[in-house]
């Protein structure tokens, strides 16, 4: 083949490759432009959709929608309920909105919304329990009550029995469900086989309102645990700063509750208990003896003090193995912020007064003067 013909073929091949490269570049450019347009259109569409989903379903409407939020509902479940009832446009967008704004602690109950409500108005209603229905039951649980005692209170007011309640609070599977639901409050400490009732001290004393005619035991317990979580969570940092576990703090609060009736007394008695622990003394508090005995007595006898129980603070060092009843928030506050003093003893008279002493001699003198 001649030299000129070879050069001609080379040029033809070069031109063909050049045309092919141009075609590839054009195709790639078209694809990139198309993808960018798709992303742009998708982004704009997504923005407009989310913007629309954040607006009221029907801003001009005052149509009322009755919605039931069951006890124990998660945020995702609440969002689904609201979307299903036409109160919000999109459950997923609602969930992202409350997560972004760190909104939580929604209340169960019967609500009346309108389709013209903004998301913030809906959230405010759910957080503050602004419900339209009147409670069917309103039950007050006094401070200091044991699980067995509050089981009796509920059994008198609701459709289940005392045994139903006690069976549920001692059910291992149910307790583990609660531990998963409230991991910062309930620990493995409550599963200690020597603990009499796992939820003793964890069902907060308060007034509870129920909107169902026959709420279940589970409903009642979840409502009480929700209240406990609300109260105790405020003190988690202080509990940690005091080198307590939540279980120890709650146990301490329950003991203080049984020994005092006012916030001032509680702080003072908490200080006495701290002093005894620092001196290597046992707490020696009679309410723990009564809890160990499992019955109420007007007077604790010397023979009672000898009961070998992990709850008896005449027998064990430090705190009992677990709470001995419910408590007021001021008892928990006192356990974490006791009043400083040099007192090592205190004595109740028959009129509600408490007398303190720095040593055994003074304590015995108080007995002679105030126990006759």
Automatic annotation (TrEMBL):
One of its GO terms (molecular function) is lytic endotransglycosylase activity. Its main location: membrane. It is a single-pass membrane protein. The lineage of its organism: Bacteria, Bacillati, Bacillota, Bacilli, Bacillales. The record marks 259 as: Important for catalytic activity. Functions as a peptidoglycan terminase that cleaves nascent peptidoglycan strands endolytically to terminate their elongation. It is found in: Cell membrane. This is Endolytic murein transglycosylase. The gene is mltG. Its EC number is 4.2.2.29. InterPro entries: MLTG-like (IPR003770). It comes from Virgibacillus massiliensis.
């Amino acid at each position: 083949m001649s030299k000129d013909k070879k050069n001609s073929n080379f040029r033809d091949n070069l031109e063909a490759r050049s045309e092919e490269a141009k075609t590839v570049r054009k195709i790639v450019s078209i694809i990139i432009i198309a993808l960018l347009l798709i992303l742009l259109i998708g982004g704009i569409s997504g923005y407009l959709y989310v913007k629309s989903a954040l607006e009221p379903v029907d801003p001009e409407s005052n149509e009322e929608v009755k919605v039931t939020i069951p006890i124990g509902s998660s945020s995702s479940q609440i969002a689904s309920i609201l979307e299903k009832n036409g109160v919000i446009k999109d459950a997923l967008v609602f969930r992202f909105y409350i997560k972004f704004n760190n909104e939580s602690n929604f209340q169960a109950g019967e609500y009346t919304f309108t389709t013209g409500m903004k998301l913030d108005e809906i959230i405010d209603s759910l957080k503050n329990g602004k419900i339209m229905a009147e409670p069917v039951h309103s039950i007050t649980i006094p401070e200091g009550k044991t699980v067995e005692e509050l089981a009796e209170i509920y059994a008198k007011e609701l459709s289940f029995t005392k045994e139903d309640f006690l069976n549920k609070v001692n059910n291992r599977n149910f307790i583990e469900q609660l531990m998963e639901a409230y991991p910062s409050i309930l620990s493995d400490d409550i599963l200690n086989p020597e603990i009499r009732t796992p939820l003793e001290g964890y069902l907060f004393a308060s007034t509870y309102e129920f909107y169902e005619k026959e709420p279940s035991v589970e409903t009642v317990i979840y409502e009480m645990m929700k209240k406990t979580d609300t109260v105790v969570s405020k003190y988690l940092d202080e509990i940690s700063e005091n080198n307590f576990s939540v279980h120890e703090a709650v146990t301490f609060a329950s003991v203080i509750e049984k020994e005092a009736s006012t916030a001032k007394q509680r702080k003072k008695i908490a200080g006495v208990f701290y002093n005894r622990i620092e001196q290597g003394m046992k707490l020696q508090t009679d309410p723990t003896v009564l809890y160990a005995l499992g019955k109420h007595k007007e007077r604790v006898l010397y023979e009672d003090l000898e009961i070998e129980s992990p709850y008896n603070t005449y027998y064990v060092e430090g705190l009992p193995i677990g709470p001995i009843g419910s408590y007021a928030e001021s008892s928990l506050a006192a356990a974490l912020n006791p009043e400083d003093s040099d007192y090592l003893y205190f004595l109740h008279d028959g009129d509600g007064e408490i007398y303190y002493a720095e040593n055994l001699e003074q304590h015995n003198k108080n007995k002679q003067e105030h126990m006759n």
